[in-house]
Design brief:
The complex is a heterodimer of chains A (149) and B (421). With 149 residues, chain A is α+β, with helices and mostly antiparallel strands. Chain A has five helices and eight strands. Chain B is globular. The chains are: A alpha+beta (149), B alpha/beta (421). The complex binds flavin-adenine dinucleotide (FAD) and iron/sulfur cluster (SF4) (2 copies).
Chain lengths: 149, 421
């Protein structure tokens, strides 16, 4: 399946991927409105690591063998059998953080305000991940089967 | 082929989902003494505390059995197995024959031999019906004593506290959650319970249950007497091996299984809290009674029952539990006493953060994270993958620890789905 991969050599650490991730999951889907009007901005679904000069962002790998899905105590975490996308049904999630315990990528972010797991859904609604689309340096690639380095 | 599964919980789901990925024709029969649609057992404390309603407790959709072509025999207990004739005998005299059998009967509560157990309002806490009965009996302002400060007692305390019950935990060890936390960790967590008015008495246990028809209190071994309207026995669970007694299936504490989840008898498998499988950290068989393990063992059993040979690398204990805003994630060996283990730890009393890593030679073998739990899975991954942590060991305690501290080659391999060379 297609996943988001990062070329850390060209990441400048601008954090725009995070901004657009939040926007893509906001009510207004608009950067300014998302940041100005929403009282409770969505939790980002992306992790940014930085230790100058190196930086990169990291999203859920939508693992074939997804341990988060197998371990979830409520059945909230699910893998779509057709698309392979792993998503969290926030109606079912109780914020037990068992998925945080087992995700080897540390790709699940705790939305502590709503006590639910927050993770990359590849912008299922929009069709293309917002982080990839808005990275000014093309450090993020949406591709099948990894990228060559 | 007919596959019979005893037990209607997560190990069953792991097995059924694995089987149906590859095999849509074999018959699957699930036997359970509980009558409920498959539910999330860990949620019974959430249900008790009114945090989750009963309809939200189902673990898989309502059409799970139909969609997966599973025949259900619910509300009936399996009482014995004839492994030679390949029959499971049910109470009331019926029997079901099998080609492959999966025993997924889970655990049952340990009941200490004390006087007065037959009084009303003495509870255990591992099933939906236990939670319903306790919820009915536990009135706001009433008093409850929980015997046992392990994971189940801890979650019961949280649920009861939410109901406005005055809770006291009595724990025989010198601290609560003694199987997963060390003294520092347990003291941090105890404080958050005590700040809410939950009382914790350690180093003793119940000697006698007081009352006539209903429980009125308990006398502890240390001589102390406590009032109680409800008493919850939560000193632990043991594998529920009743159904295999009088068979040739080997048992130690649990049913012994190999790394395909097969028992000592051909065509008979076991998974979940009833099974004693390989623990990769202690390098021997051990019962690891946690939800993720039950799913994964069930899955391996399911695959092998339909002839797909897949083996399990093993598991180790791991838990994520919390009390309101106090969260902890632990895994592996968390409190070793031997000198061969190196401990790397940091405590922050103001923020109530605690991090502890247990290292053996060049490998991480366990950790405790309290409150600062984000990205805990990175560490679980190092344990599971037996990663050589030497290059980044000195950064483990960093607040922003992440892949960035890994050698570039290892990091890229992980993040870009490349083979590690
Ligand atoms: C209150 C509580 C909280 C928990 N919280 C967590 C948590 O946060 N995280 C975690 O990882 N784990 C947690 N656990 C542990 C977790 O629930 C278990 O590891 C898991 O349920 C084991 O699943 P299983 O499929 O092996 O069997 P079980 O869930 O134990 O189910 C076994 C089923 O088999 C039935 N059965 C038994 N014998 C027979 C028979 N002879 N005939 C017919 N049916 C039979 C039983 O009635 C039961 O329905 C918790 C447990 C409890 C009690
Ligand atoms: S959240 Fe983690 S474990 Fe789950 S699919 Fe994504 S990367 Fe894999
Ligand atoms: S936090 Fe939510 S998604 Fe994660 S394991 Fe718990 S219930 Fe499942």
């Amino acid at each position: 399946m297609k996943k988001v991969y990062v070329k850390e050599e060209v990441c400048v650490g601008c954090r725009l991927c995070e901004v657009y991730c939040i926007t893509s999951h906001s009510k207004y889907k608009d950067v300014l409105k998302a940041y100005k009007l929403e009282t409770q901005r969505p939790t980002p679904r992306i992790v940014i690591e930085e230790n100058k000069p190196v930086s990169f962002s990291l999203q859920c790998r939508h693992c074939d063998d997804a341990p988060c899905v197998k371990s979830c105590i409520t059945g909230a975490m699910q893998k779509d059998p057709l698309t392979g996308v792993v998503t969290c049904d926030t109606d079912k999630c109780v914020g037990c953080w068992t998925c945080v315990l087992v995700c080897e990528f540390g790709a699940i972010i705790r939305d502590v305000n709503n006590k639910v797991a927050s993770k990359c859904d590849l912008c299922a609604e929009a069709g293309e991940p917002a982080c990839v689309k808005n990275c000014p340096n093309e450090a993020l690639v949406y591709s099948e089967g990894g990228i060559s380095v | 082929m007919r596959i019979v599964i005893i037990g209607n919980s997560v190990a069953m789901v792991g097995a059924v989902e694995a089987i149906r990925k590859y095999d849509t024709s074999s018959e699957i029969v699930v036997i359970s003494d509980e009558t409920y649609h498959v539910y999330s057992r860990p949620l019974i404390s959430y249900y008790l505390g009114n945090l989750v309603s009963e309809d939200k407790m189902i673990y898989r959709e309502k059409d799970f059995y139909r969609k997966n072509k599973v025949e259900t025999v619910f509300g009936i207990k399996a009482i014995s197995i004839d492994e030679r004739k390949k029959e499971v005998y049910l109470e009331k005299g019926d029997s079901i024959s099998f080609d492959k059998l999966l025993i997924a009967t889970g655990g049952k509560p340990i009941i200490p031999p004390v006087e007065g157990l037959n009084k009303k309002n003495v509870h255990t806490f591992i099933k939906m019906d236990d939670a319903k009965k306790l919820k009915e009996a536990a009135k706001p302002g009433s008093k409850a004593v929980i015997v046992g400060g392990g994971l189940i007692g801890f979650k019961a305390a949280e649920g009861l506290h939410h109901l406005g019950v005055d809770v006291t935990i009595v724990e025989l060890a010198d601290r609560i959650l003694s199987t997963i936390l060390d003294a520092e960790g347990a003291s941090l967590v105890s404080q958050s319970l005590q700040n809410d008015g939950i009382k914790i008495i350690t180093g003793t246990t119940v000697d006698k249950i007081i009352g006539d028809e209903y429980v009125k209190g308990v006398l502890l071994k240390n001589g102390q007497e406590l009032e109680a309207d409800n008493l919850i026995i939560a000193i632990g669970v043991v594998p529920n091996v009743d159904v295999v007694k009088n068979t040739s299936i080997s048992i130690n504490r649990g049913i012994l299984v190999d790394n395909t989840m097969k028992t000592s008898v051909e065509d008979v498998y076991a998974a979940g809290d009833v099974a004693e499988g390989y623990d990769m950290l202690v390098e021997s068989n051990r019962v690891v009674p946690i939800w993720p393990n039950a799913y994964m063992q069930g899955e391996i059993a399911g695959l092998n029952m339909i002839g797909i040979n897949k083996s399990f690398k093993g598991i180790f204990p791991m838990n994520s539990i919390g009390y309101k805003n106090t969260n902890m994630i632990t895994a592996g060996i968390t409190n070793p006493q031997q000198e061969e283990f190196e401990i790397i730890s940091k405590i922050d009393h103001n923020r109530k953060y605690y991090k502890k890593f247990v290292v053996k030679e060049n490998r991480l073998v366990g950790f405790i994270l309290i409150n600062d739990i984000d990205r805990a899975g990175l560490f679980t991954g190092f344990i599971k993958n037996e990663t050589d942590i030497t290059p980044f060991k000195k950064y483990l305690l960093n607040d922003d620890f992440g892949f960035i501290y890994l050698p570039k080659k290892l990091r890229k391999a992980k993040m870009l789905d490349l083979e590690v060379v």
